[in-house]
Description:
- The complex is a heteroheptamer, with one copy of chain A and six copies of chain B.
- By secondary structure, chain A is of the alpha/beta class.
- Among the domains of chain A are: 17-158, CATH 2.40.50.140; 167-311, Cobalamin-binding domain (Rossmann fold), CATH 3.40.50; 442-482, no CATH class.
- Chain A is 52% helix and 19% strand.
- Chain A contains eleven helices and 16 strands.
- In chain A, the strands form four sheets. Chain A has a five-stranded mixed beta barrel with strand order 3-4-5-7-6, surrounded by four helices. In chain A, strands 9-8-10-11-12 form a five-stranded parallel sheet, sandwiched between helices. A four-stranded antiparallel sheet of chain A has the order 14-13-15-16, with no helix packed on it.
- In chain A, helix 5 (144-164) packs parallel to helix 8 and helix 6 packs parallel to helix 10.
- By secondary structure, chain B is mainly alpha-helical.
- Chain B has one domain.
- Chain B has helices at residues 7-22, 28-68, 71-74.
- Mean pLDDT of chain B is 77; it is low at 70-77.
- The chains are: A alpha/beta, B mainly alpha.
- Chain A binds chain G through residues 177-179, 181-182, 206-211, 213, 216-218, 223, 226-227, 230-231, 233-234, 237-238, 241, 311, 314-315, 317-318, 320-322, 324-325, 328-329, 332-333, 336, and chain G through 7-8, 11, 14-15, 17-18, 21-22, 24, 26, 28, 31, 34-35, 38-39, 42, 45-46, 48-54, 56, 58-59, 62-63, 66-67, 70, 73-74, 76-77.
Amino acid sequence: MKESIILSFTENTALTCARLSKILTMPEIVNDKTVFTLLEVTKSIQKTLAERYKSAYWVKAEMNKLNYYSHSGHCYPELVEKANGKVIAQIKSILWKDDYINVNNNFLNVLKEPLKDGIKILFLAKISFDPAYGLSLRIIDIDPSYTLGDLEKEKQETIKRLKSEGIFNRNKLLQIPMLPKRIAIISVETSKGYADFLKVLETNSWNYKFFHLLYPSLLQGDRATVSIKNQLKRIKKVREHFDVVAIIRGGGGDIGLSCYNNYELAREIALFPIPVITGIGHVTNETVVEMISFSNAITPTKIAEYLLQKFHNFSVPVQKAEEKIRDKSRRLISDEKTKFGSEIKLFRSVTENILIGNRNQIKENINSLVQQTTFRFKNEKEYLRFGREEIKRGTFKFCAAEKQEINGFALIMKKDVISQIIQSKTALNNMEKNIENMSPQSVLKRGYSITMSNGKAIKSTENLKEGDALETIVYEGRIFSLVKSSIKTIE
Amino acid sequence: MSDIPTYTEAFDELQSIVSEIEQGEISVDELSEKVKRAALLIKICKQKLTSTEEDVDRILRELDTTTNENDAQQNGS
Amino acid sequence: MSDIPTYTEAFDELQSIVSEIEQGEISVDELSEKVKRAALLIKICKQKLTSTEEDVDRILRELDTTTNENDAQQNGS
Amino acid sequence: MSDIPTYTEAFDELQSIVSEIEQGEISVDELSEKVKRAALLIKICKQKLTSTEEDVDRILRELDTTTNENDAQQNGS
Amino acid sequence: MSDIPTYTEAFDELQSIVSEIEQGEISVDELSEKVKRAALLIKICKQKLTSTEEDVDRILRELDTTTNENDAQQNGS
Amino acid sequence: MSDIPTYTEAFDELQSIVSEIEQGEISVDELSEKVKRAALLIKICKQKLTSTEEDVDRILRELDTTTNENDAQQNGS
Amino acid sequence: MSDIPTYTEAFDELQSIVSEIEQGEISVDELSEKVKRAALLIKICKQKLTSTEEDVDRILRELDTTTNENDAQQNGS
């Protein structure tokens, strides 16, 4: 088995066999068989190999195990080559103490990682065969930049895989409780980071109280991956008690952090049911774990501050809320009191207004009443005075008219009586004149005379004879005579 | 004819005498008697008129005076 | 004719006398009597008028005085 | 005429008397009686007016005083 | 009229009385009665106004006092 | 009206009463009723305000003390 | 609200009360209730900040019962 491995390791099997036969030139013959001692053979192999592989070669391989022996300081790395997961080549190797120190320093410088198990290396080696120890590669130097690239590739692959599985952001998408006060700490009890973390948390001046429980774990180097995973598993079982997992590493320098690029670990963290925050404390490139963790802080102190900040983020609004409640509730009451007070003022003024309005109306009515009654009385009195005056005037006017009429009567009477008397007088005078005119005396005066016979006035010739005595009366006397003759003049 | 006739009687008689005389119904014989009568009647009438006039004058004068100063007599009416 | 006639009676009689006189319906005999009557009636009327006037004056004067101090008589009215 | 007429009755009667007098519809005989009546009516009216005025004055005066201290009478109204 | 009228009733009646008086629709005989009524109505109105005003004053005064010691009355409201 | 209204109801009603009064839509008769109602509302509001203020003050005072020594109640949270 | 809210609920509810009160959406009627509630919520929140309720022993016990397999690796660290 071992030989086959060795054979399979050689580049040219045919050539090797030929050389081997050359080396075995002095064999012992036993029972027709050429018999070599083991040493002869191995020496032959040694010689052949030494002749064949004179220089050192750059070889790339996976270093499964470093196999560092601390007491000797030498390493015996296990080198393999795999194809499709199967080991297709394998060889022992030796890294002497001095070389190891040298290489390891280079690694630490370049990779920030020590030389360790499970990395791919490009190494300068001489093929060595020792009859006692067999075939091995003596590693003279290892090129750290090759391994760096490989580690970077692994990291990228991890990222790619997580992304392709859709879990890269899984932990980030979790909700961290408002108060992440229950902390499962994955750290090393004696580490400075842990101490710093606790100091910041527990001596906070706001009296914020945290609950934390340490889950001790390796935090760097290859074994850290498993260790952390184990603790994560434990935490997962009691996750109800925790708000957050804090992976805290501090004071370890930047060495041995490639474990945080490990897919398994990264996956575990990505899928972890509660937020995982990391404070791994280094200055180099961010590891995958840091990328996918819920939150990453550069140092443990920063994690603590991050958590305290969360408390602040909670506490400050609560404080503000309290202040606002105080202010606003009192303000609300005082505003309401003001509003209420002004409403009451308004109430008073509007009621007073309406009352004043009504009072004025009443007053107007009273005034009107006084005025109207006064006016009315004045009018009535006026009329009574007028009536009195009218009576006086009317009666006097009437009396005066009557008097006038009566005086008129008197005048008429006087006039008519006088005129009647005058008329009567005139009439009498006229009659007197007539009578005077017609009296015999007046007639006689005008020359007429009356002739009488026997005391009677003669009007005709009848009954008158000659000689009858006649008496003729004239105005101034009487004439006595006798009739001589008479003549009748009227037929 | 002892009684003095009234003015009206006297005046009427007088008128009738005048009328008789005017119509010549009275003979010369009666005439002077009638004229005498008329003269009497005229006298009577004239006297009556005069006395009436005097009466009336007095009454009216009294009326004038009383109506102008009728306070005193007011009670006596 | 012992009674004093009323003003109206007096006035009416006066008017009829005046009318008679105007129309000359009164004989001279009656005349002075009528005039006398008329004068009396005139006097009566005038006195009545005067007294009425005086009455009215007095009443109204009394009214003035009573209404200015009419508290006592208020019940008697 | 034993009852005292109301102001309105008195006033109306007064008015009709005044109107009659103005239109000379009253005989002299009635006149002083009417005037006397009118005077009485005027007196009645004036008394009534005066007493009413006093009443009203008193009421309105009381109104001024009572409204300033009207608590006691508040129930009696 | 035994019930005390409301302010509105009283005020309306008052106004109609004033209006009647203004338009001379009230005789002197009724006048003092009406004025008396008006006075009563005015008194009622004024009392109502005064009492309302007092109510308001009392309420606002009570407000000042009760709010300083209002625990007892709190249940009674 | 047996239920005590809330502050908001009381205040709103008070405001509407004030507004009604302001717009002169209320007769004096209603006014005293409204004033009475307003008094009740005002009292309710005032009491509510006062009691609320006291409550709030007490609560906030309590808050001060408890938050300074809230260990005892810690389990109750 | 018989259940004590979690501090998260308390925080949220507190914020919403603050917001309500800030926006003046709380009436006087609700105020003391709201303030009381807010006080409770504040108390809950503050207590949460300064208290720890988790019990290490219990956690470890729970842990032991479930994880006996991984002791080996634990010690190797």
